[in-house]
Amino acid sequence: MAPPPYDVADLGLAQAGVRRVEWAERAMPALRRVHDRFAAERPLTGLRIAACMHVTAETANILRALRAGGAEIALAASNPVSTQDDTAAALVAEYGIAVFARAGMDPATYDRNLAAVLEQRPHILLDDGCDLVNLAHLDRPDLLADTIGGCEQTTTGVIRLRRMSADGALKVPMVAVNDTATKRMFDNRYGTGQSTIDGIMRATNTMLAGRTMVVAGFGYCGRGLAERARGMGARVIVTEVDPVKALDAVMQGYTVLPMDEAAPIGDILVTVTGNRDVVRAEHLASLKDGAVLANSGHFDVEIDLPALDGLAVEVRREVRPQADEYVLADGRRIVLLAEGRLVNLGAAEGHPAAVMDMSFSVQALTVAWIAEHHADLHPGVHDVPREIDTEVARLELEALGVGIDRLTVDQEDYLNSWRA
């Protein structure tokens, strides 16, 4: 059988990709159960899905589950530095999924690949940062008549979708998969925390113990990163714009400072905010010699890269893999990791598969829910039904061999009666 449409680096890498995908699957037992359910029930038969996601082994396993459910799928990469070329090849050659992704592609190719998956005239959009949804609305609104809904799996993307909805620009129902309890707990807190440390360690081989790490942003991702950095012996400083989150950081024992005061004393600065220009020219100018800059907040706008280029008199590319050294006029050196893109995917392999097991199980079940209930959904941002979140937590506990209590009839009556 001929492969689906594709633009990947080398189909000859497919077998290496299969081994990578199957290894990840071992740590994704909940998603495996969803896969088996979909294969038996085929809830997505006849549906076309366009996805803009990180092309990794973990992503491959949710796409395999959706394919088992009957869907036809086209995938573009959501980040040029995270694409695993062997996984992309395996998805095309072994799993029958159209893939348009190459590691290290330039912005023009990125845009072309997004357009290519939209050419499949999708019924459902799976997005990671809202780029695909944004492109469909701005450049291909003619396709939206076929679109019954979609999912967004990042904080940054949900922020953009809510803004679109508030402006009356969002024309399809989108479900905020990012905002579920299991996603925030596992993916954002535990996943981002561990994988960001992993990326920094791989790129720099530095010791965290005794170093000062500045964590910009104390949402779920920032909390996870701060916890793990402190656990490895780093002195952690938090910067925030939200008084409630800043207070939370203080009460957890972290030093909280404005970035103006934190930047000059930080050995490692990591942005995890979802906003732009968090580390600006005035902060860059104050950094100590050898300071390391990294971003784990999705887009490469959190660190002001044009300002960094403007300050540097020399740029030494790849002093280590995924580490570029910028030399300032006074001789100070600043090290930028993964080109300011997601360090946990650019310099490492992203979240562990066990983390993505939860997030992707929620997303797969949500896709089936959209397929069943789309006629009742209006354009805008919707929450994942709580029963899906609960079901995924139950599947994960079963896979871990963990049992929990159940409410007795009397307990349920007590909770449901105001007269008790």
TrEMBL record:
Location(s), subcellular = Cytoplasm
Query: InterPro entries given for it?
Result: Adenosylhomocyst_ase-like_sf, Adenosylhomocysteinase-like, Ado_hCys_hydrolase_NAD-bd, NAD(P)-bd_dom_sf, S-Ado-L-homoCys_hydrolase_CS
- Tell me which positions the record assigns to the signal sequence: none
- By its UniProt entry, which Gene3D superfamilies does this protein fall under? Adenosylhomocysteinase-like (3.40.50.1480), NAD(P)-binding Rossmann-like Domain (3.40.50.720)
Describe its function: May play a key role in the regulation of the intracellular concentration of adenosylhomocysteine.
**Family annotation (HAMAP family):** AdoHcyase
Q: What's the protein name? A: Adenosylhomocysteinase
- Please tell me the species this chain comes from: Nocardiopsis mangrovi
Name of the encoding gene: ahcY
